[in-house]
Amino acid sequence: MNRSNHPPFFDLASLPEDERIEIIGNQVMGGELTVGIYVDDEPGKADRYIEKIQARFPGIEVIGRGAGMVKGTILIRLRKRRVVEEAHA
After folding, report:
1. Domain presence at residue 38
2. What is residue 56's DSSP assignment?
3. pTM: predicted TM-score of the whole model, two decimal places
């Protein structure tokens, strides 16, 4: 994966949805980057993606969701869940 100052862009539109979920999840879990995905603003589609991603990759958290910069899309921002270690007395 490219770890330069300019993260990669992947056009996954031609792939089946479950394959997209797998690629997205692997990208998020593979590093410390925030990953943004655009989905069509069809009713329930963003929720479905979030549910599938978190079911397959429980270590992923949604850190943002809102209107995408492209009309008719929703931007979902994901990152690997941060583990907070408790101080031991």
Report:
1. yes
2. H
3. 0.80
